[in-house]
Amino acid sequence: MASSDSSSKFYSAFSLAAALGAAAVAKKALTTSWRATTGKNPPANPADPDVSVPEAVMWATISGALIGVARMLASRRAAHYYARSTGHLPPQLQKDGQDAKNAPAAQS
Q1: pTM of the entire predicted model
Q2: pLDDT tens digits for 15-58?
Q3: Which of 40, 68, 71, 107 could cross-link with 19 by S-S, CB 3.0 to 4.6 Å?
Q4: Residue 96: left (phi > 0), alpha (psi -120 to 50), or beta?
Q5: Distance CA 21, CA 2 (A)
Q6: Of residues 69, 71, 77, the one with CA closest to residue 93
């Protein structure tokens, strides 16, 4: 159990580091793209009343989606690396009930 517990902790730390790194890279790329597209810096705080509502909504939507996707992809990559290294998925990801054949029948 100790080996499984330590590998689980390693995966958690590795996955977190990969997700945070991906989020930082995505934010940098997004900030650069925002500047190139709009000619100004992105809103530092979209809740600031000096930021227009359309600009705040656009920044929140785009940055949230892109950073979320980057984190998810990095976490998936970390899981793939873990599985390749150990021969199995991390304990957190083993059989999460997503198989369609195991799903309960839809109620009509």
Answers
A1: 0.71
A2: 889 999 999 999 999 999 999 999 989 998 888 999 999 999 99
A3: 71
A4: alpha
A5: 28
A6: 77
Phi-psi region of 8 (alpha: psi -120 to 50; beta: other; left: phi over 0): alpha
Tokens of 98: 């997503």
Q: Do residues 30 and 42 make contact, with C-beta atoms less than 8 angstroms apart? A: yes
For residues 92 and 108, give the distance between their C-alpha atoms in angstroms, rounded to a whole number. 33
Burial (Cβ within 10 Å: 0-12, 13-18, ≥19) of residue 12: middle
Site of tokens 């227009």: 52
